[in-house]
Amino acid sequence: MHNSFGTLFKISTFGESHGPAVGVVIDGCPAGLDISVEEIQQEMDRRKPGQSRITTQRQEGDEIEVLSGIFEGKSTGMPIALLVRNQDQRSKDYSHIADQFRPSHADYTYQVKYGHRDYRGGGRSSARETAARVAAGAVAKQLLRQWGIEVFAWVSQVGALALEKSYQELDLTKIEDSIVRCPDLEMAEQMIALIDETRKNRDTIGGVVSAVIKGVPPGLGEPVFGKLHAALGGAMLGINAVKGFEYGSGFKGVEMLGSQHNDTFYKDEGKVRTHSNHSGGVQGGISNGEDIYFRVAFKPVATIMMDQPSVNTQGEAVQVSGKGRHDPCVVPRAVPIVEAMAALVIADFYLLNQTSKLRG
Amino acid sequence: MHNSFGTLFKISTFGESHGPAVGVVIDGCPAGLDISVEEIQQEMDRRKPGQSRITTQRQEGDEIEVLSGIFEGKSTGMPIALLVRNQDQRSKDYSHIADQFRPSHADYTYQVKYGHRDYRGGGRSSARETAARVAAGAVAKQLLRQWGIEVFAWVSQVGALALEKSYQELDLTKIEDSIVRCPDLEMAEQMIALIDETRKNRDTIGGVVSAVIKGVPPGLGEPVFGKLHAALGGAMLGINAVKGFEYGSGFKGVEMLGSQHNDTFYKDEGKVRTHSNHSGGVQGGISNGEDIYFRVAFKPVATIMMDQPSVNTQGEAVQVSGKGRHDPCVVPRAVPIVEAMAALVIADFYLLNQTSKLRG
Amino acid sequence: MHNSFGTLFKISTFGESHGPAVGVVIDGCPAGLDISVEEIQQEMDRRKPGQSRITTQRQEGDEIEVLSGIFEGKSTGMPIALLVRNQDQRSKDYSHIADQFRPSHADYTYQVKYGHRDYRGGGRSSARETAARVAAGAVAKQLLRQWGIEVFAWVSQVGALALEKSYQELDLTKIEDSIVRCPDLEMAEQMIALIDETRKNRDTIGGVVSAVIKGVPPGLGEPVFGKLHAALGGAMLGINAVKGFEYGSGFKGVEMLGSQHNDTFYKDEGKVRTHSNHSGGVQGGISNGEDIYFRVAFKPVATIMMDQPSVNTQGEAVQVSGKGRHDPCVVPRAVPIVEAMAALVIADFYLLNQTSKLRG
Amino acid sequence: MHNSFGTLFKISTFGESHGPAVGVVIDGCPAGLDISVEEIQQEMDRRKPGQSRITTQRQEGDEIEVLSGIFEGKSTGMPIALLVRNQDQRSKDYSHIADQFRPSHADYTYQVKYGHRDYRGGGRSSARETAARVAAGAVAKQLLRQWGIEVFAWVSQVGALALEKSYQELDLTKIEDSIVRCPDLEMAEQMIALIDETRKNRDTIGGVVSAVIKGVPPGLGEPVFGKLHAALGGAMLGINAVKGFEYGSGFKGVEMLGSQHNDTFYKDEGKVRTHSNHSGGVQGGISNGEDIYFRVAFKPVATIMMDQPSVNTQGEAVQVSGKGRHDPCVVPRAVPIVEAMAALVIADFYLLNQTSKLRG
């Protein structure tokens, strides 16, 4: 259950880390959209393993195959199925942990819930599944661009190294200029050094991905249980290793007074605007036309290259040894995933809002 | 759209702040549950306005009427409809803002989205709607109790006054011992003083509600898009005024190393347990049997008793003056709402997990 | 579960036959619709018991109370909750069958499924629940009228008395001219006589309701699992006592050759039309702009005024005696229910189709 | 939208008739089910084109590839993705109709709804999409067998040739003994002759598929909008070319009296049974443990080998000439599709019913 996401722009993902393939079916993409498969591939390349020295060295081409829904270069309104074959599986790396529960992985909980599980590389709990989300998100991004909407995400913290600058102070065109995807290149250097050091210590470290969505028109979001920020938060918390989400003023807003926090309105060139934007572009769950921005906390990756105490499926005490190829820090590769999920949420609510535009 | 919440234990709420009533329909409550209407009423009383000097002075009896689904004291498996009539509406308090957009309220976004809105007290964007959620949550709580599950929430921060103690260090039976609902009674005094002062200044202030769910069996939650913590986070972010959510190690976990953060397993009296619980009781999106704990950030209430610059529906600059009766700090009354939403999420996933227990 | 219907124009009904009330929450009605509560009441009156000598003599005012979602006479886009209090409940009529299973009723199946049930008048399995559907359908009808769409249903068969005329040969303005709701007044007389005779025999009899939907634009319906006629069929089969559904050529179409059955196209005043309409206005699951027409088969009402052999909850053989007040033939009162469900389906697909109108 | 089916045992299909592949993702299959890929293949072979002289001569291997969700021969509870590559596409057969609307096909309605469509062989409106449903249904069948449930479908009518025998009078093991899939082999001969003759006349003809589901326990189905027979009916009406559905006494039940139609209860070996079964195994929308049986009407296939008048996308009058390879009568190949959809519905409601078994 719950391998689908979205209401009108709906995706369903499938596939395990070490099975034949991962893939996604997008149901609800409007017809007539020019879809560039190369652009989908570019997003895949931003997420794929082995892209730099600070990511896992698993090698995957992550080449996208279009199975349906695109005809003569355009979407047809029918389900778009996208497939990525798995290549560098090395399942034998996992045989030693087939009956062990790796600490802070999903091994134990899947075993309890399903009884029978694909233990190779975490099966479906592996972040490899996010390749399917990135593929779908790349289609959503192309749709959003038609509507003048753009999503930017970047690494704003690694361990204790936190970029204190707000997104307005950053040059977001520089995100891809460093392998860690921090647009402040000085900070990027420090982050890379910290990740390098952590990897040498056979350890892992957490981080924060920040994001801003520009160009969202007012009116997206649904009252009560479909608040736009709640959907974004739910989407982000659904990404592997995420521990927290805040938008607008976030946890710091707690300390503010109402008189400081309120975003007063004014009119600018025929548009209703707000002086400040502590609301993060969303008021009462509905976009108000200002930038939507948020932060996503990622824990350190659970797979470390050390021995750790655990138990096995028989309940016996064991030592789990760290093998396999893993990221010392997940955030650089999480950037396109955050963007993909944000794009999927916005596309979905944009479609939903079409029906609100009808009047009796 | 999106006035429903949940998949198998599903609620649909209705009603505006100043309309005839608010209510909820619960679809999916298992049959045969003894339902105490008094217990529902007790939860209503914990949320209701006018309960203490630090809440709004609007007076509502918030008396629950059962319209369906309960027969001879037990649930029948049919929809349970619960109704609360609005009493102390004072709609005229709002006539002066009928065509004004109050800063950081939903007035502007609703106007843009729907064209026609009930401007009295925020209509459906008012926190009055949460009365319906608390009623439904009170049924969910009674169901969870049958399964040995309990939810506790409390105020852990008001403005900059933060309770640094973890939940294990607190006596959760004392939550109701102070009107601010902080179980550390010394801190509670300080919080109350701060709220009093803020109200005297005609201002408002934010806060944090913390929560722990005890007794959740391993196996609740669904892979990928139905992760238990993502559902909890989405639910919390759907509560009015919430700006952030974190669970387990949360944003602080970012700074940890994997070797510090990982929760190693051991066996204790036949049960697989973890030594630490940075995972917050959820691994790979599925409960592991440990306590589930999380924190929810609330911004300062938008209605302040001061004049603020704004625009009206014609786009003209106006001064919005603060009238009406509002909470200087939302968190004391948010406690039962957080508990209600948590109970609804857990009940839903408990039911969903029944189907996972089938084996081919 | 499954007390909701629809995707974007979604209704949730609640309430038992002999509980305090039945009601419905409509989620997704576009904002700004002028809603006439009198028109809702008129539809209620068409369905209500005691309306003529050939229906049950239970007396219900079936007065509609609006609880939310309508402000200053217009929909606000928020949930519209409508309530009908039950009045003439006479629960004691049912005490004698509290532990008996009435043949061809839902008593046995509810008992098995839920263990605990409201046995008074069938509880929620009673056709009284359809009052809530008619209320919601009356809102949908007002919405459809804005879009130029109208739904007509009438009685076309009672027992073996079948009206052989097609809908084009009938004067649909005469539906309400007879208490049996057959627009052919000669046939209506015969039908009424047959129902009278059946009732005198303490028996019941089946019938057919036919319907046509006029003014549906081309494009409504979704491929594969959301075919418009499948949604209509599913909706009709969800009405109490329905045993069959056919649209367009229906079961008789089976005997035709493709060369007879195909509806060839031509152009008429700028519109693509078909010469014949065996397709019943739907091709490939999507409306083509022609009239949509269908037929719904209703079995004879299960409650007869005779003794019948059965078993009780202890599995003992018993005689169930027919008491209470029931319809000798359900179809006259089923007419507004068929219309309501059809209107709900069309409203839902009209909204869904808005999103198809977007182009990439 | 609406390319998914089911609530807890949910399938999502994708793929066009003349694209690279068709496929299906099954979300919600319980873990631990032994899945035989050969059995899936056998069902595919029952549906596949070119299987006999009375079906289309398009040649497709329809070989199933498992992409995910099965590990070491068992389901894992994760999405099961099944893929069938298209082989014998002959897209050039369709170039002549790229801008023409074939009568009684979905060409016109898709063009209106989506603007841009895959015109080759009907794209997604083609019955080729049902290959994906049969694959998913074959998994559902294996699941149902674990629970003692079996589905049988057969051809009971071709044109005016109607098998008057009830299912109890037939030997259902003989369904596969004739290429027309009628278990009465004498009638089968006549049906085959009629289809042969129709094909020689370059025409097509309709038919009826009957079905029975045996072994369904009491309790499946949900009240009001989730009635089991309504779900079956909706599912059947979603199959290409279906015009009608009836269950139990169906349209003939209309002519019966309540005293004839009611199924009186008795106790047999500890089980509550009914003497007759006009209810078709479903009472109040919930299975009562008796056989569930129904009939599905199929119109004649729209593609005939004759010239027909039509219009093109420019609205000009044209003659559409019949080319391509099509079935003269769809019902023999529809048999496994009816079985598949029935199995999917029952599997879904079986899972849903697990949650009803919980008691407060």
TrEMBL record, chains A, B, C, D:
Catalytic reaction annotation: 5-O-(1-carboxyvinyl)-3-phosphoshikimate = chorismate + phosphate
Protein family according to the UniProt entry: Belongs to the chorismate synthase family.
Gene: aroC
Cofactor: FMNH2
Metabolic or biological pathway, per its Swiss-Prot or TrEMBL entry: Metabolic intermediate biosynthesis; chorismate biosynthesis; chorismate from D-erythrose 4-phosphate and phosphoenolpyruvate: step 7/7
Complexes and interactors: Homotetramer.
Database matches in SUPFAM superfamilies: Chorismate synthase, AroC
Keyword Flavoprotein: yes
Keyword field: Amino-acid biosynthesis, Aromatic amino acid biosynthesis, FAD, Flavoprotein, FMN, Lyase, NADP
Main function: This reaction introduces a second double bond into the aromatic ring system.
EC number: 4.2.3.5
NCBIfam families hit by this protein: aroC, PRK05382.1
Cofactor binding comment, as recorded: Reduced FMN (FMNH(2)).
Native source organism of the sequence: Shiella aurantiaca
A Pfam family recorded for this sequence: Chorismate_synt
Protein name: Chorismate synthase
GO function terms (MF aspect): chorismate synthase activity
Residues that bind NADP(+): 47, 53
Residues engaged in binding FMN: 124-126, 240-241, 284, 299-303, 325
